[in-house]
What does this fold into?
Amino acid sequence: MPEPRSERRVGIALVIAAAVAWSTAPFFTRLLPFDPWTILFWRGLFGGGMIMVFLTVTQGARGVRDLVTMGKGGWLVAVLSATGMMTFIPALQMTDVTNVAVLIATQPFVAAAMAYLWFREAARWQTMLASFVALCGIALIVSNAHAAGDIRGMGLACVMVLAISAMTVAMRRYRETSMVAAAALSNFLGSLVSLPFAHDITHLGGTDIFVLAMFGFCQVALGLTFYALGSRLLPSGEASLVATLETPLMPFWVWLAFSEVPSLRALAGGALVMGAVVADIVSNRDVDA
It folds into this structure.
């Protein structure tokens, strides 16, 4: 059953905002010469703290209660989100940014399949066709990855895709649960798991703390909050497809800041992903209210 037009537009806008926020991860990662667990620990604390501030300001005591009285749906989302975050940063450090970015474009297929198996939510054929075009972009770029580091990094990226796809479906399934509170909890869980493995946890200067705070606020807090709100308003496959706009933006920020020029394959694959997302949005512009 199609979503109301206004609700769908809000959902698309929120997920696009989430994709822009998430795409800054490689930029911040390049600025931090620490092991991934140290980055995950501090980023999780700052990200979770920022989300809790948002909840407190917008909902008062109710926001804090939502975190404490989290139901099974919220815990499921939090665990899946934490899993995705804890595999994402190591993947970025083990392989090229582009290899990680394009694997994210498989999420529409995975999320649509999970949504159908879980509660029989069928994806639009236009969305699946657009997802296939995005997948062609993946095949174009990652076909050049052969090094051992690439394989390990891409393996972690695949785990991330499975976790985030399942998280998207869970957000859709448990719409009555406060997913913003679940996003905060996922950050704190990530910090807790990372703590025993973080070797550089006390070796931070003032600039490092500032970068980590911005990492937590811009990439995590804004990204997860926007996605938690927007993905509940869209079919799981479409939410994941729109989020793949993160893919071409990730190499863009790295190029802009560090002059790391994307390959022709990356540019071509990114163009396919962006074209697929735009085509899907346009094809559904006449959805019934």
